[in-house]
Amino acid sequence: MARQRTLDNAMGDLFEQETQSRWLAPGALHLPGGLDSLGPGSAWLLAWIGAVSSQAPFRHLRTPGGQSMSVAMTNAGPCGWVSDRRGYRYSPLDPLSQQPWPPLPRELLTLASDAAQAAGFADFEPDACLINRYLPGARMSLHQDRDEASFAHPIVSVSLGLAAEFLLGGLTRGDTVQRQTLRSGDLLVLGGEARLRFHGVAPVKAGAEGELRFNLTLRRAQ
Ligand code: MD3
Ligand code: FE
Fold first, then answer.
1. Where would a tag sit more exposed on the chain, N or C end, judged by fewer CB atoms within 10 A?
2. What is the number of the ligand 1 atom nearest to the C-alpha of 195?
């Protein structure tokens, strides 16, 4: 009997995935599978990313130090995050085409607003959606997101495709970092006390969930 329970527990540890929403830290809410609140599946979102990138292609931005980032990026919505020799900033135009970024669909605005509401942030209306594309090996080093006009608004993240280890640090670069696996369909809300925490993504490993990882961050830039 005891032996059977141990085996069941081991199987549970091996195969159980989180389904409960959980505070990783004050202001940082993980909503596993939260994308499914819009109906099952992520095919519509992958198709939308394909449509965005046909108009505004993924590109590897340069860091102020001149290095090319391993993550490829594009944007949708009234503002997009870009870099050039003047540094990072939000711009209404794609510098590659001098055209506005593709629009944000109502469904994504509602998803972001509902997720923010669940974390206690009312009336979140994003004006920017940064789309990150990770191939196996791509990573994002620890950073803070501070190019937005106000840190009173949260950021809502949607993960798709390959799983990744998200790293959440503190308000100082050297603070200890906690790890959280982000799987396809997971949402993360970062606001309040968590809004200026250092964070990053460990090198993405190849896996069974496809060839790529996408992360969308819905933001209020202005
Ligand atoms: C914690 N993206 O685009 S999303 C980024 O998975 C970024 O691609 C990561 O960091 C990714 O800037 C992480 C989760 C996230 C987004 C914003 C945050 C975590 C955050 C802002 C403050 C603290
Ligand atoms: Fe970030």
1. N
2. 22
Q: Please give the structure tokens belonging to residue 188.
A: 């993360």
Which residue's CA is the closest to the ligand 1 atom numbered 22? 195
Tell me, what's the pLDDT at 10? 52
User: What distance in angstroms lies between residue 2's CA and the mean position of ligand 1's atoms?
Assistant: 43
Ligand 2 centroid–CA 66 distance in Å is 19
pLDDT interval class at 58 (50, 70, 90): very high
Task: List Cβ neighbours of 139 (8 Å cut-off, separation of 6 or more).
Answer: 70, 71, 200, 201, 202, 203, 204
pLDDT at residue 3, rounded to an integer:
42
CATH topology of domain 20-54+105-219: Jelly Rolls (2.60.120)
Domain chopping of the chain, boundaries: 20-54+105-219
User: Is the CB of residue 74 below 6 angstroms from any atom belonging to ligand 1?
Assistant: no
